[in-house]
Amino acid sequence: MIEGMDVLADLDGLRALARSLVHGDADAEDLVQETAIAALEHPPATDRPVRPWLAAVLRNRWKMDRRGEARRRLRDAVAVPDQDGAPAADELLERARLLERLAKALVALDEPYRATVIQRYLDGKSAADLARAERVPAATVRWRLATGLAKLREALDESQPRAKWMRVLAPAALAQGATIVKTKTWLIVLIVMALCAGGAAIFVASRGGGGGADDEAPAIATSPRPGVTSTSPTAITLPHTDDTAAPPVVDPLPGQGRATVERASLPGGALAGRVINWSTGEGVAGAELTFSGGADAITVRSDRDGSFALAPPSPGRLTLATISAPGFLPYAPEWLHSTVHVELARDRRVRGVTIFLFPAVDYHGVVVDGEGKKIANARVKLLGTPAGEQQIDRLPTEWTTDRDGAFTFHAADDAVLEASANGARGWGRLDGNVAITHKLTITIGDAPARDATITGHVVDGAGHPLPDVLVRAMPGGPPEDQTVRAPSFALSGGDGAFALANLDRGHYEVSAADDDGDRAPVELPDVTGGTKDLTLTLADGAILEGAAQSPTGEPIPAFTLLVSKKDGALRELVSARSIVDDRGRFRVHVAPGDYELYASASGWAPSAPTAATAPGKTTLTLSAGATLRGTVVSKADGKGVPYARVMREAPGGGASAQPANAGTVTRTDGTFELTGIPPGPVSITVGAGDFHPRIEAGMTATDGAELGPITIALTPLGKDEQPTLELVGIGVALAPDGDALKVTRVIEGGGAEAAGVVVGDHIVAVDGAPVTAIGLEGAIARIRGNPGTTVVITLAREAKMIPLTIERRAIKS
Questions:
Q1: For residue 332, how far is the Cα from the chain centroid?
Q2: What's the whole-number average pLDDT of the chain?
């Protein structure tokens, strides 16, 4: 039979798994508690591993909830577990004294920790409820809870070692929690269980393992699904270390250090890295990373400088299922649909992997009508984010405006919000301007509700239903017809059915992907909102495989792979995933055909776009690239601008946790180094809070070159001023159109306007380079430059080829 302490020891890991499956802290807690009680009521066979069974129970309950059954609440009906015998009188006395000390410690807590803990655990309010009541960010409430519980643990630690008081309190928690209670008693027990869960790693370390230093880390490990081994494409000599808990490599250039591989005596291999703040480059302490190995989950936490270590007991394939930390947006794609894949090998450690988290910045919204009048009591809700990563509802997704029409919210970049009041509605997007000003205005008016759905089924090539497939609806149609529209995501059910909600009647690109399976993704490019009975067929895919390597043939152990379909000047992204593999290997399933592959990795210049045919093998070579050094200053006073984001002007891709184009941030004095710049024209983007963003160009990179130092001056924003992009170019907006780039906008005062370029013209070459070969990114890189210089553009207009020499000018867009 499962021991009560085993259940408590696994609470943290189960909680991480639950958060990956359901929306909301409260729902996750319910799911964890239901699973814990099920373990006490109906334990598995004595020779069966506890943790995989618990994970299976939890996932089965989640699936039943998803398919329309009412959630079972623990406090509604729970049976008393069998007792091996009555506790001794001295044990009961010791337990009572501990509970008395806990009560005194709770009373002695400073505010606001005491009130937050009491309202959360004694009044049963969720973190979202408290955030709304106190008008503070939910992340602040979670931080107060974590701090309050930590202080309570410290108070109990003063009386006796933590392991001892946890063992004393645990039976009380289990016995009380297993009684049929509809009072606040169970909520009191939750404090005890939360306190015990905070020290669960103690019991994991004491229950087994190799006794190495890694066993002492705050991690909960289980056996993942074994992986498939293969021979290395290159024979290399790895450094060896006998220290199984080697100290982390702290990157002097945050997010730009190269990942390395070393030998270590670890039966399951290991992954070591660092979680850093996207905005500052500093380490994120206490981040919780959950890796999925199928039905099981492995949870690790970062230490005070953001470093973390993962060392499972056996090698195999894992995905980074979730990341969360107080004060940060979670990385939380649908379960088993993460695009961060890890392959660990015996006696190999991959070190230096960087994981990014984005701060949960306070954004200030206001809802107004067409005349600018502020609307009180308007309902605002989050419709979606482009990547669909923020699936865990650890942040509120609905708000109500106050009497001034205002609300405060957290959301990911490019999130779409809908506001409605009295039958009127409107939409707003968290775009680059909002990210800089932290202000969003949503204007409501007479507009139809976005209440359309797209429904259908996902099947395999034989017509059999496919469950748990991620289906996406991305806004489509021509760019000029686009309004503020949100994507929609859904998982197919057991019968393959799906429903994509909150859509308008416009056109969408509907796709489905079985990320962990062996089927090719499918996409239908022109589906109207409201379409019913759509069939998405995932046929057997062709395999694209190969390896990412350095110029000398050494594997790149951590990289992001982008797979695109090339159609003239257009590159349509088919697959994007971040990969950790000690041999630099990749393997993706796509439909048979021709593709273009691109790999990027921190500390390296990305590979050149490489043609590949599926099925087939290819090698992607990343180069050293150039390093640009410089300083970002304020144009107002010449002082350095700290924490400005400096990136290559290039497409993104990959997970937010490991983007393909991460760049760097400036130090507190405004200085920076940007590594891994590929050979060719250099164009970088620079952005910082309270400044107009800027694109800087006019440099040429070669492998190993040192560029700069340069000084980039940013213009401060005026009061209530909206940001505008400052750059040097010819003054056009472009979009791929067949074998050319269509001019969709001509900016007033630019060189293109002066040369006679008009909307509808098609650019077919830049300085003699066909756009079919260089694509949109290559064309833009050649168009950028220094003010006063010229570029030769070849236009197609009414079946004529027109070469134009156009002056580059400083413009605002």
A1: 6
A2: 78
Do 122 and 184 meet the contact criterion of CB atoms below 8 Å apart?
Answer: yes
The whole-number pLDDT of residue 355 equals: 93
DSSP 332: B
Structure tokens at 150: 């930590």
User: What's the predicted TM-score (pTM) here?
Assistant: 0.71
User: 260 near 348, Cβ under 8 Å?
Assistant: no
Task: Residue 628: name the closest of 718, 706, 682, 555 by CA.
Answer: 706
d(Cα 355, Cα 272) in Å, to the nearest integer? 11
Q: For residue 455, which of 440, 433, 467, 471 has the smallest C-alpha distance?
A: 471
Q: Which long-range contacts (CB under 8 A, 24 or more apart) does 186-193 make?
A: 186/74, 186/75, 187/121, 187/122, 187/123, 187/124, 188/121, 188/122, 190/29, 190/121, 191/102, 191/106, 191/117, 191/121, 191/149, 191/152, 192/102, 193/8, 193/11
Residue partners of 37: CB distance under 8 A and separation at least 6: 74, 78, 79, 177, 178
Mean of the pLDDT values across residues 517-522? 82
Q: What is the mean pLDDT of residues 617-638?
A: 95
189 pLDDT more than 80: no
**How many angstroms separate the CA atoms of 607 and 627, rounded?**
16
Q: Which residue has the higher pLDDT, 809 or 184?
A: 809
Strand-pair partners of 344: 316
> Which residues have CB under 8 Å from 10's CB, separation 6+?
50, 51, 54, 200, 220
Measured CA to CA in angstroms, residue 345 lies from 240, 268, 581, 798 at distances of 15, 6, 8, 59
Half-sphere CA count of 102, side-chain side, radius 13 A: 24
Alpha carbons 574 and 540: distance in angstroms, whole number: 16
d(CA 525, CA 544): 23
Mean pLDDT of the region 691-712: 92
- Percent of the chain at pLDDT > 90 equals 36
The 10 Å CB-count burial string (b at 16+, else e) for 723-762 is: beebbbbbbbebebbeebbbbeebbeebbbbebebeeebb
pLDDT band at 38 (very low <50, low <70, confident <90, very high): low
Q: pLDDT value at position 138?
A: 61
The predicted-structure confidence for 80-101, as pLDDT tens digits, reads as follows: 334 445 556 777 777 777 777 8
d(CA 201, CA 215): 9
* Three-state DSSP state, 800: strand
DSSP, residue by residue, 156-200: HHTTS-HHHHHHHHHHHHHHHHTS---STHHHHHHHHHHHHHTTH
Asked if 559 and 600 touch (Cβ cutoff 8 Å), the reply is: yes
Q: Which of 767, 776, 756, 755 is nearest to 794 (CA)?
A: 767
pLDDT of residue 487 exceeding 80, the answer is yes
Q: What angle do CA 269, 272, 274 make, to 5 degrees?
A: 160
Structural contact between residues 434 and 471, judged by C-beta atoms closer than 8 angstroms: no
Mean pLDDT over residues 491-496, rounded?
A: 86
Handedness of CA 232, 662, 257, 708 (dihedral sign): positive
State both tokens at 203: 């019991």
Listed residue (315, 147, 321) closest to 225, CA to CA: 315
Question: Do you find a cis peptide bond into 709, omega within 30 degrees of 0?
Answer: yes
d(CA 186, CA 329): 30
Residue in the block written with tokens 């010449």: 638
Tens of pLDDT along 395-418?
Answer: 567 899 999 999 998 888 888 999
Q: What is the pLDDT of residues 157-181, one digit of tens each?
A: 777 776 666 666 655 444 443 333 3
pLDDT at 646: 93
